[in-house]
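User: Hi! Is it possible to get a structure for several chains at once, not just one? Here's what I have:
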Amino acid sequence: MASEETQAPFSAEQFFATQPPPPTLDEDVARVRQFIKRHTEANQKIVLVTSGGTTVPLELNVVRFLDNFSAGTRGATSAEYFLKAGYAVIFMHRQFSLQPFSRHYSHSTHPFLDFLDVDEHEVPARIDVKSSERPQLLSVLSQYKQAHEGGTLHTLTFVTVNDYLWLLRALSQELYVCGRNVLFYLAAAVSDFFLPRQKMSEHKIQSGKGSLHIEMDQVPKILKPLVSEWTREGFIVSFKLETDHNLLIPKARGALARYGHQVVIGNNLHRRKFEVVFVAPAAVNSGTRPTPGQEPSEVDPKDFVETWLRIDLAKDPHKEIEEDIVAELVRRHQLWASAA
Amino acid sequence: MASEETQAPFSAEQFFATQPPPPTLDEDVARVRQFIKRHTEANQKIVLVTSGGTTVPLELNVVRFLDNFSAGTRGATSAEYFLKAGYAVIFMHRQFSLQPFSRHYSHSTHPFLDFLDVDEHEVPARIDVKSSERPQLLSVLSQYKQAHEGGTLHTLTFVTVNDYLWLLRALSQELYVCGRNVLFYLAAAVSDFFLPRQKMSEHKIQSGKGSLHIEMDQVPKILKPLVSEWTREGFIVSFKLETDHNLLIPKARGALARYGHQVVIGNNLHRRKFEVVFVAPAAVNSGTRPTPGQEPSEVDPKDFVETWLRIDLAKDPHKEIEEDIVAELVRRHQLWASAA
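Assistant: Yes, the chains can be modeled jointly so their relative placement is included. Here is the combined structure:
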């Protein structure tokens, strides 16, 4: 289904010059700026977590869209562990994807209405939480209140890949002031393809005319300018999700060689709950950033270090692999920040 | 983007002969059969509500898929009003789309964690509902408990358009036994296109090879066999969602003429919260079903009656148009059932 035809993909500059920004961009950025200012002044580390899938609308009046599989579990879970580790968290997620704290109470798998009881004997009637659910709810609730009262969690949303790219650029430029104290945790499942505004149909595509043909352009490789221009000193973690296990390491290495950032976390769609691999340039562990703009051909595979993280869900079914992922990243980020 | 090329679309028979059923089909149907049996014996009317969008996976190991815009608001809201009207409700919805009752507590717009307080003075700590939220929660909770204790709501889920079509066929065949006592409320946003299993790529489509080309086949027109074969006596309501207002009535009339069912509810994407139009064959109002198989060309536009339903959200911001939609359908279904 991927065509053989090659076509010069949009560069990041061409993308931003031709595709319209989301209407709320300025407000969103102003709010994030306040958040960054407050936590930078308090000398607190900041993490930008992106989470959930992006859509590619096929119509201006959107009825149909291409989407990427992602409930947002990785991002929402990791955000909680970053908060626990003392980070201020900017949680930039797909609208209606999972969020920290409320993720424990999915309306489909753990609906909160199920564990509320009504006590009609009191006037007015009292609503009680079933005792079996109370310990977990108390724990989630206290972390939730703490994050809200401490102002350590800032949430903003995107829907389309266009929204995502505009927001990521603007936020990374704002985060420039943090120097090495910022971590980028790019867990969102971003579409590789998009439909330029100029090619969209205005109204719902009508059926009844035979089969549907869609032709999409490549999304510009945003990590390139992110690493080498927008946020030169941030610690940048990207993700590779593959279904073909043999592609995991080569694709992760390829991304590192191309963009020169700090870590690629590789995960297989079917094993991602209990196994991930950190791929990183050997040099980053000692806090030396590779030269931006270095070409893939110049990088030797022995310059990369792979570290597998695995958990045993049979032994500990409540363990979340994000706890270990975040612990390892906090450690590496600390090295990176102190090596400045 | 819709091609000019025409291609013989799959018939429903061809579709079911070549596309695999969802793995849980038999279990799902067995549970619905029990539900139908119980409520038919109690002489209770049944409604099948379908809700939410369907996906079209592009890969066997699904990462990317085409989707239809739908949060499931119409279906979830209507299901509540059908329950209030005394119907037994089969709620067949897209996984993670809105559901009756919990829809009032979206994690994004009305998170329940926000209105819980912890009283640390008691041991063990007590969790309380903020007084401002208590009246609504008590009302929602009591309806929720009533539906669950009375066994009047049966929920099952789909994800892909393939799941949807297999389930709809199987459920409509089960509902045959209800004769005229069953209403079909087909509010799901079903894809017009699909990718036959035989054309899917096994693994994630790789980018980096230029632009993406997708070619999809037309989904068979399922209303045709639904109306004329699977459930000859059910009262069938389908929906048309358009963004081009001028297409609403012609498309609704076209569907009625083609399939010979009872009501098409037309709605404009941007006005659907406060305005819909019922389009129905004049004859249905007196309880006479049009001859199935009648061709569009044989139907005169004057044989159709249009009824607009509008609500004034400025006057009553809490009014839901689904209340009026369901009331009108309950009335029409009553006429239909008693005219047998």
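Chain A touches chain B through 79 residues (CB under 8 Å). Residues 321-338 of chain A form the longest helix (18 residues).

User: Great, thank you!
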